[in-house]
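Limitations
The structure tokens in this dataset are predictions for the assembled complex, not deposited experimental models. Users should treat interface geometry with appropriate caution, especially where small molecules or nucleic acid strands are included. An illustrative entry is reproduced here so readers can see what is and is not provided.
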Amino acid sequence: MPSALLELRQVSKRFRRDDEENTLEALGEVSFTVQKGEFLSIIGPSGCGKSTLLRIIAGLITPSTGECLHNGQLVSKPSLERGLVFQDPRLFPWLTVRENIGLAGNRSEELLETMDLQGFGDALPHDLSGGMASRVALARALAPRPNLLLLDEPLANLDQKLRSKLQGELRGIWKKEGVTCILVTHDIEEALALGTRLLVLSKRPGRILRDTPLMCLEDREALKPQVLAWMEG
Amino acid sequence: MAKAKGLVFPLGLVLVWVLLGCTGTLNSQILPSLGEVLETFGYLFREGLLWSHLSSSLFRVFAGFALATLVGVPIGILMGCVPQSREWFGPTLHFLRQIPPTALIPVFLLWFGIGEAPKLAVIFYAAIFPIIVNGALGVQEIPQDYFEVSRVLCLSPWKTLRNLVIPGSWGSVFTGLRLGMGMSWRAIVAAEMLASTSGLGYLVMTARSLARVDEMFVGILVIGFMGILIDAAFITLENHLIPMWRSAKRVGRGERDAKCASRTAPSLQEV
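Predicted assembly:
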């Protein structure tokens, strides 16, 4: 078996409130691996530590216990090898679309084309629709050619129609760029539509309830009620 | 419409002043009529005296203000970027800014002698605090989410400064510059009243000693109008220099994004 692109070993995360001695366990001990080329969907109820998990993988925070290895290297800080797309686009409002994309890479023109944003390179973020802003955020994360793309509910703020459209585009980009993706979402349909594998987290502190591959379309459809039951159970 | 409303009161005052002048009830040794003040204004203007005093004051203000900008903006940005610097230097800064610049005129005269230096020091002192405080606030007000983006993209400190800190704090920095300029203008007049042989403050004080109340009023009105003109120039400059910041702030996807709290509650500390 080839060595995993990403490996989490009993990773947990606790937080302490400023005014309290008690700690809040956001994420239970979680272990899993991600192989190159996978599209892993992580789903779980609100507050189960999905985003915390993604932030640990991104290197924005360190785990309270356990370790996270990317390409065999311990993750201790952010790296251009890991791209992160936040729930909100977080585009710098004073930079143009081209400048935002080019912050950490020099493939703005190529990505403007890939994301169907030709003609908007000189636009400012506040001139863009929600869907376009999400695409720019995705392009910005892809610009440094990461081998692992972390998606923290990037389509959550969009309406259903636009979401479906962008889900298709996201899957296309995953194939075209050959980047391994980890998507965190609370939307079952999105998780099933995009992933090649599904990880279901329990309520806080999040622990892995199920880790299952997603095969053909029929399988995905059939899984929907089951996933709901896992999450509720 | 709002601007027109703001003109009603001063125009009313001018009208009362004119009417009192017409009735002949005004004592010109206490309050000269508007006609007399305008006549003196014309005389001082034609003789070049007004411009001479005004240019002296403007030169001092802009020189001291430029120096305060050069020193204050980097300090403000640094204090905004480095929280520890606020802990170390914040209380001292807070103490110093409570001391009015005019209270330091005797000290500056003692240290720098007579001449331009003490006046420049007064201007510098008056302008630098609003510049520092607003610069620091401007950086602090940049949403932490943007700094997180900078971390994720592994931007260098220089690139973060250029692409995030400077443009992100520019609106607040500019407000500090505007306030600093206003403070400078007020301070220079006070400084010239106490230790000068030229400038608008000197004009007012000399007129008082010579019992030229009309000249005094010319000086006072010119000071007020110049203050308004400088402030208006700053607002115009601000509108031209940072329109996209303003529109971004107003329309605010950036701001909306900023309000989306970080997924880790800020009141929580990592363990």
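Some entries come with short summary sentences. For this one: Chain A has two domains: 6-81+146-232, 92-145.
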